[in-house]
Write a structure and sequence with these properties.
The chain folds into two domains: 202 residues, MFS general substrate transporter like domains (Growth Hormone, Chain: A); 210 residues, MFS general substrate transporter like domains (Growth Hormone, Chain: A, Up-down Bundle). Helices cover 72% and strands 0% of the residues. The protein contains 26 helices and no strands.
Length: 486
């Protein structure tokens, strides 16, 4: 029996299908959230987006200096930096996720290791003085940020079907906060000798290492997260706790009114083993969720790389000629917009349904890339107020598209057969995202540089390509329509 949940259903539609008990069944109130543990996980998760995004305001300036590039040509090199992080993430995300489900390890040790070494390699990034060294530190930071799959699984094991629509959007708000705070840190504290001055920062060290201060601040946040992970975070892996909460997939709300006789025994739950990646891939819905996850990551990764590059590039090359501080403020606005949108997400999910919201989020990417073609025109012909209004509009559109990341988490959890396989399933979804992320920064940055350098289609050839890719990605989202919301 399948039921569409993307719109309201009439009683005549349901009457032939549902028994009176199920028709009149009122869903239970959401169970209380484990606030302390979720707060700890949220703070630890904050480390990764801050570590990644604090480099955005100054990365093109740094790359241009180390690679001896200029103007739009910087795009060829900055794309490599973005891809280095994703290559490492791709090579390790599945294994971190699988490691976290093994009985002898669990989630907590994986999170502790990842948090500690993310902070360490962020510090080393700040003292990089050659382009190969820069790539190496980015690669190693990405290697240990692959532990996000374990963090996703912890959240999935702390909540249930009655409160996940609240917890997952809140969890994703953490990334939005990171996207707001990270660029502000990078834009405000980079080059402190010139931006901050004074006896503390007008010194040879800060002139030699102008990007160490934002990295130091980020590493301090990582150290705080490490302390919380070691001393406060509890292990959630069911096999480690002696408890296994296996979700039984039932139509409509039967799983909420099922007789206790149908519940699996404690012995069965304790001996449940995670399914292999090939077994999970044999399920059509898992394949489609992973494909949608990869498509979303490609669009989001491409947008971030090309927006930062466009913001840095001179006006004559189709850019906005913004300073690192201005880029940091723009990305801070983006993160703030994302916070407000994601606070409203539970309302949209309840009102419209998970799949409907997901499809509209994916559809917004085509409009986002198309609108970016207008930014240089506004920057050249309008005033500063008009330029910032246009930039804010594009940032808003991009955040609508990124709301889909929360929904991917829900889809992954809801369509994974048992929590014992949740770590593997999250690892697969992250793997798909990282695979897309390997190619997204390099391809879109190279397309931008090629379009600007050779004035292909007025310098907007990259826009046409990305709008086309967005349309194809929207098709992936449409393939999930046959699967109901829970």
């Amino acid at each position: 029996m399948t039921v569409r949940s993307d719109g309201p259903e009439t009683s005549s539609d349901c009457e032939p299908l549902l028994s009176p008990e199920l028709r009149h069944h009122v869903p239970p109130r959401p169970n209380p959230l484990p606030k302390l543990q979720l707060a700890v996980v949220f703070f630890i998760k904050l480390v990764i987006p801050i570590a990644g995004t604090q480099t955005f305001p100054y990365i093109n300036v740094l790359v241009a200096d180390l690679a001896k590039a200029s103007g739009a040509q910087t795009g060829y090199y900055s794309g490599l930096v973005g891809s280095a992080n994703s290559v490492a993430h791709l090579l390790t995300i599945y294994y971190w996720g699988y490691l976290s489900v093994e009985d002898r390890h669990g989630r907590k040790p994986v999170v502790v290791i990842g948090t500690a070494l993310t902070g360490l390699f962020t510090l080393l990034f700040g003292i990089s003085k050659t382009f190969p060294t820069l790539l190496l530190t980015v690669f190693l930071r990405g290697f240990f940020s692959g532990t996000t799959g374990a963090i996703h699984s912890i959240v999935g094991e702390l909540v249930d079907s009655t409160n996940e629509a609240i917890a997952f959007p809140l969890y994703d708000i953490v990334s939005a906060v990171g996207f707001a705070v990270g660029p502000l840190i990078g834009g405000t504290f980079s080059s402190p000798a010139t931006q901050l001055g004074g006896p503390w920062f007008d010194a040879p060290f800060w002139r030699t290492y102008p990007y160490f201060l934002p990295c130091l601040i980020t590493a301090t946040i990582a150290a705080a997260g490490l302390l919380l992970a070691v001393f406060v975070l509890e292990e959630t892996l069911p096999a480690k706790r002696g408890i296994q909460k296996m979700a039984i997939r039932l139509p409509i709300d039967e799983e909420r009114v099922v007789s206790p006789v149908r519940q699996p025994s404690t012995e069965t739950l304790a001996t449940a083993k995670p399914l292999s990646v090939w077994t999970l891939l044999s399920l059509p819905v898992v394949r489609k969720v992973c494909a949608s996850s990869g498509a979303l990551a490609y669009l989001a990764g491409s947008w971030t790389a090309v927006f930062v590059l466009q913001a840095y590039t001179p006006l004559e090359d189709g850019g906005l000629a913004l300073s690192p501080n201005q880029i940091g403020r723009a990305l801070g606005i983006m993160g703030t917009l994302s916070i407000f949108l994601k606070l409203a997400m539970p309302f949209f999910l309840r009102r419209l349904g998970t799949l409907t919201v997901f499809r509209w989020c994916m559809r917004s990417w085509a409009a986002t890339f198309a609108a970016m073609a207008l930014l240089p025109v506004v920057a050249q012909r309008g005033g500063a107020a008009a330029e910032w209004a246009a930039v804010s509009g594009v940032l808003f559109l991009s955040r609508i598209g990124c709301m889909a990341f929360s929904i991917i988490m829900i889809l992954t959890k809801d369509h994974t057969p048992g929590t014992s396989s949740l770590g593997t399933a999250n690892g697969m979804a992250e793997f798909a995202q990282s695979l897309a992320g390997v190619f997204a920064p390099t391809i879109v940055s190279s397309l931008f540089a090629f379009s600007a350098s050779h004035h292909v289609m007025g310098g907007y050839f990259w826009v046409i390509i990305m709008v086309s890719v967005s349309a194809v990605s929207g098709w992936f989202a449409e393939q999930l329509r046959k699967y109901r919301d829970d």
